[in-house]
Amino acid sequence: METPQIEMGGFKVNSPQVPNGVLRPTVSSSWNSRGTVERALKSIRIVIFTSKLNLLMPFGPASIILHFTTRRHGLIFLFSMLGITPLAERLGYATEQLAIYTGPTVGGLLNATFGNATEMIIAVYALKNGMIRVVQQSLLGSILSNMLLVMGCAFFAGGVVHRNKDQIFSKATAVVNSGLLLMAVMGLMFPAVLHFTHSEVRQGASEVALSRFSSCIMLVAYASYLYFQLSGRSNIYSPIGSEEAPIEDIAEEDEEAEIGMWEAVTWLAVLTLWVSFLSEYLVNAIEGASDSLNLPVAFISVILLPIVGNAAEHASAIMFAMKDKLDITLGVAIGSSTQISMFVIPFCVVIGWMMGQRMDLNFQLFETATLFITVLVVAFMLQDGTANYLKGLMLILCYLIVAASFFVHVDPQSSDG
């Protein structure tokens, strides 16, 4: 007669013959646990120890130590930037691994989302302290940086690597995103025009009410865009000349994943939290860095801070362009700009409304005009569906013009900003 066995999880108990009910692990449970540990160690080795840029990671903890031990804000600002740089590159790597499983459409959207998490956290933190102009300038700078600097560097790097041909991307994606960016410009322009033409029904209140209404409309438009993009319409996002093979299949054929899907998701979460944590120290050092570097706070907020905040998009967009995956590059650069303009900015207006802060869409005439011209330039660059190093160089030079403009621009001190 066989001894009855009781299974509990991965263990078996032979109650009559095993003294004191000793638990013995089965072979399958031991192999599963060993395999889990081996996969975790392999994932850590690939993500942490395969990139030479990770030698800069100690600058992150060093900036935190300096924050509590010294008052040298310029050094804290520099160390925070150096500490964020390798994390941003690894964030792009983890997103690329996840894009192999999800396809470039969802992969680009995820990269834009994780890349913008830092901006959203900084914006909410600044709104809580009533720093409305800092929120507006940093978000505007993120849009300008993504559209001109990030995409320009990606086009330039991809064009240099693939000098013998024009790189091709989906024109449908560019058209949809350009339309959304123009809609965002319209949402930002009317409150500013209403304010500076003094044509409000109620002085100081109408532009805030209009901003809140427009923000809700923009959030609805962005939700509709996401539904349109993710609801089986991916066939229209295929590059020219590859109608037979969807982009997802092309991405899967190019390379195999080095880490698992859930491992990539875990790394994305961990790296995003660490980047957000360091970004708080970076923002707290802005005013001190402005004094030590002799630069206006507006220039740091619009130009320098977004370069660091968009480091994840910058690294990953260039990496994808060099691998001739321009559809993911557009999803990262233009997709991130679209997400900031159509989701993050309206989201901040709604959050400010809930907090009792008068956050509105009046970004002042100079900033609004800069955004409008930038969107027009980028839309014309993308209309033919091709990219090369000349277009990339032109976008970079346009960003230098924008940076020089903000260097000599004095932010107007208005009572509502």
UniProtKB/TrEMBL annotation:
GO terms for cellular component: plant-type vacuole membrane. It holds the Pfam family Na_Ca_ex. The chain crosses the membrane at residues 46-68, 75-93, 105-127, 139-162, 174-197, 209-228, 264-283, 295-322, 328-353, 365-383, 389-410. It is a multi-pass membrane protein. InterPro entries: CaH_exchang, CAX-like, NaCa_Exmemb, NCX_ion-bd_dom_sf. Its main location: membrane. Belongs to the Ca(2+):cation antiporter (CaCA) (TC 2.A.19) family. Cation/proton exchanger (CAX) subfamily. NCBIfam families: caca2, cax. This is Vacuolar cation/proton exchanger. It comes from Zea mays.
